Amino acid sequence: MIFGTQTSPYLHAQLSVGQVMAQVIYALVPGTLVLLGWFGWGVVTNLLLSLSLALLLEALMLKLRQRPLALFLTDYSALVTGWLLAVALPPYSPWWLILIALVFALVIGKHLYGGLGYNPFNPAMVGYAAVLVSFPIEMTRWPNPELTSMAQLSFEQTLQQVFLGGLSYWDGLTQATALDTIKTHLRLGETVSQISQGSQFGWLAGHGWEWVSLAWLAGGLWLLYQKIISWHIPLALIGSLTGMALIFWLLNPESYSSPLFHLLSGATLLGAFFIATDPVSASTTPLGKLLYAGGIGCFTYIIRVWGSYPDAIAFAVLIMNMAVPLLDTYTQPRVYGTKGRFGS
Amino acid sequence: MLARLRQWWQHTGGLELKDYHKTASTQQPVRKLSASTAEEIVIPLQQHTGQPPKPIVQAGDFVYKGQVLAVANGRISVPVHASTSGRIQALETRPIAHPSGLNDLCVILIPDGQDQWGDQGLPPITDYQAVSAECLHQRISEAGIVGLGGAVFPSAIKLQRPESSPSPITTLVINGAECEPYITCDDMLMREQAAEIIGGCLIMLQVLQEYTPAQGLNCFIGIEDNKPQAIAAMQTAIDQANDPRLKLIPVPTQYPTGGERQLITLLTGREVPSGSRPTAIGVLCHNVATARAIYQAVVLGQPLITRYVTVTGQGVVRPQNFEVPLGMRMQTLIEAAGGYTSKAQRLIMGGSMMGVALPSDQLPVVKATNCLWVSEPAVSNPPLPCIRCGRCAEACPVNLLPQQMYWYARARDLEKVEQQHIFDCIECGCCAYVCPSHLPLVDYYRYAKADIYAQREARAKADLARERHDFHQERIERAKREKAEKLAKHKAAAQNKTADTADKQAAIQAALARAQAKKAQPAPLSTATEDKPA
Ligand code: SF4
Ligand code: SF4
């Protein structure tokens, strides 16, 4: 009998990139549902718009670059990028804002660099940062969860806001985020406890945001359990951010927010489990991951406290993305039977 | 618990598979296949790592079972023996078990059906404790014994008296881990021939004790804990041998625990330095099947002419193990296992992780044939780009960064590939197994290694050429220098001579005239050999 020949190994785990990405999407569901509960229809429009536009742009770029459509669309990486942007952008974002963010994310951040696996920067964060610097007003106003739940703002009103140039009374429905409020008011000389009396504050962090953050945490823990991500990045990011926050908070709790506030505010937990863990743009060695995520935590704190942007995960991630090649080169683990870098 | 803890702070890599596919082929006792009914036996001369042996038989010769067909030729070489009695039909090149269908010189033996040993065999050494290590060593060498775990390196060489480095061997590691999925021949061997294996271990201990006397020489036998019957049988044999040096250590079931270096580290807690042999840390590693072969050679006087072979996979009707005479056609084994099923698509010699795919079943079983795995068709997954997920690095038992090696190998940046320690890669395939992008990672490493070798060779050649060129240049320079010196000397001598007589003038005139005359003649064809590059 004549046989075909291949090379070893002949066995393979039944895991594909598409499955990995699908798990990430599943893990995003609980956080997204909580977000939806607090902020209403705007989360739905964000998500639907972002996902469909992401698929469309991805397909278009694959076509232009003459890559097999079916193969690369089913890796679901564009959907993950789209989903992350949908939950990172303020709910009720106008359609053009989402489109611009996605163009930056997928066209510039991903495909111009060579597509999946070749992008040095986290595509979702490229898109987010691009619209944050270009449209600061739209990006810093988040809906007030007290006024925008599904019961209060109808689907028609949502469509009007997203597609038809906005509701005239929209400004009344929004407010600055807790992170933003703390920063601006601290600069006015108020103390943390005074500022925290404001309506955007809940029991620990932003009103409603705490629950969203905890839901991201739940999804993230599930990803850890499924071994889709390793513990290095979330732990180092959370560790360094809380560590920094703890030091300054202990020094002066009236001028610096508590570590818990930093943990549950903004995109900390979303970033720690879903954004910084993007494998392509993160460091790939164990020690490198720790340094990479530790750096993100530090930069996040620095930008949040002393920078001029409301949240900092995006910039921190992009900064650390630049350090990845260096980190990877200098953090090679000790190979079996060798002395290793430090001679141990 | 401790092992778990150790795994936490120390990277060990490897795979824990759900199913090792070992039960199918261990349901029935090992069946002995006889060479006497075979229509021909094809014995390749080169069945080991090293120099091929020199044939000493000719077409038409009659040989007995166990008779030497070719003698060792060179330092790293072993003889091969006839696996049955019969007549030599020819010495010719035949396809051997190699993925590319390579041909090699083989002895074609037509069995006479008697399977008779004759009187040329090796005399049994029943009381091996009474003889010298020299004598045992000699026997292991002349019995053609090689590492039966897959490396087929001559066993006697590993056991010989060390010449330069006198570091004593303190630990003999006997590898019964058999971590590759599907393979069960060592498992069955341990179940059925435990006493002979232990006998072989004791023989090796005796040789080591005399050659490299060491305090507290130990023998660790590592067996994966998914082989309870083998462990029980081996423990019984150890108890019977009642030798305190023998220790059976069950090891966790994890691929590639049976890798030489991995097993040594697991059992001794020490790492074999990169680029060195285990002997560098006083460890010697042999496979259980090798130990048994040594016992057979010494105590029974039988050279290595059979081996246990697993025939398994979804592609055969009745997976099982056979004791097979070397040189038997693979097809015969498949038929003995009930033939092919409709799923048979690939024939792989060795395991599913490191074996070689064979183009045909018309090839002879050799000393390296531990398993014939007839498998269902491959699931073909088109590769995607590497997403740097790091799963490969987590799985790598050597703690390499397969994703980085892949990146540099793809970019043909050989220098960087080498910096990533590619030569410590044992090609176990763990990285390619887990890769969600389905990249043929190990192929890239094989190519890169070959490329680096080729580059080194080219560089060595270039260096040699440069050296020669430099030498040549130097020679020209020296000739010039010497000429100039001579000239200077002459000049000085001439100046010293004040005599400016007519005689001299005449002589000069004459010389000039001679020179003129010479110039008129055609120039000699070839000038000095110096102009040719040496
Ligand atoms: S497992 Fe595959 S995709 Fe993941 S880092 Fe390794 S080579 Fe890249
Ligand atoms: S094949 Fe090489 S790189 Fe891959 S896991 Fe095995 S040793 Fe590591």
From TrEMBL, chain A:
Topology of the protein relative to the lipid bilayer: Multi-pass membrane protein
InterPro entries assigned to the protein according to its UniProt record, in alphabetical order: NqrB/RnfD (IPR004338), RnfD_bac (IPR011303)
Transmembrane segments: 38-57, 69-89, 95-113, 232-251, 257-277, 289-306, 312-331
Modified residues (FMN phosphoryl threonine): 177
Coiled coil: none
Subunit architecture: The complex is composed of six subunits: RnfA, RnfB, RnfC, RnfD, RnfE and RnfG.
Family: Belongs to the NqrB/RnfD family.
GO BP: electron transport chain; transmembrane transport
A GO cellular component annotation in the UniProt record: plasma membrane
Stated role: Part of a membrane-bound complex that couples electron transfer with translocation of ions across the membrane.
Name of the protein: Ion-translocating oxidoreductase complex subunit D
EC numbers: 7.-.-.-
One Pfam family here: NQR2_RnfD_RnfE
Keywords, comma-separated and alphabetical: Cell inner membrane, Cell membrane, Electron transport, Flavoprotein, FMN, Membrane, Phosphoprotein, Translocase, Transmembrane, Transmembrane helix, Transport
Top-level taxon: Bacteria
Compartments where located: Cell inner membrane
Cofactor: FMN
HAMAP family with a match to the protein in the record: RsxD_RnfD
Gene from which this protein is expressed: rnfD
Automatic annotation (TrEMBL), chain B:
Biased composition (Low complexity): 493-525
Cofactor note: Binds 2 [4Fe-4S] clusters per subunit.
Region (Disordered) location: 481-534
Keyword Cell inner membrane attributed: yes
Needed cofactors: [4Fe-4S] cluster
Binding site for [4Fe-4S] cluster 1: 386, 389, 392, 435
Topology of this chain in the membrane: Peripheral membrane protein
Positions contributing to [4Fe-4S] cluster 2 binding: 396, 425, 428, 431
InterPro entries to which the protein is assigned, alphabetical: 4Fe4S_Fe-S-bd, 4Fe4S_Fe_S_CS, Ion_transpt_RnfC/RsxC, Nuo51_FMN-bd, Nuo51_FMN-bd_sf, RnfC_N, Soluble_ligand-bd
GO molecular function per UniProt: 4 iron, 4 sulfur cluster binding; electron transfer activity; metal ion binding
Keywords (A to Z) from UniProt: 4Fe-4S, Cell inner membrane, Cell membrane, Electron transport, Iron, Iron-sulfur, Membrane, Metal-binding, Repeat, Translocase, Transport
Compartments reported by the entry: Cell inner membrane
Cellular component per GO, a single term: plasma membrane
Matches recorded under Pfam families: Complex1_51K, Fer4_7, RnfC_N, SLBB
EC number: 7.-.-.-
Subunit structure: The complex is composed of six subunits: RnfA, RnfB, RnfC, RnfD, RnfE and RnfG.
Family, per entry: Belongs to the 4Fe4S bacterial-type ferredoxin family. RnfC subfamily.
Known function: Part of a membrane-bound complex that couples electron transfer with translocation of ions across the membrane.
PANTHER family from the UniProt entry: ION-TRANSLOCATING OXIDOREDUCTASE COMPLEX SUBUNIT C (PTHR43034)
Protein name in UniProt: Ion-translocating oxidoreductase complex subunit C
Natural source organism: Thiothrix eikelboomii
Record gene name: rnfC
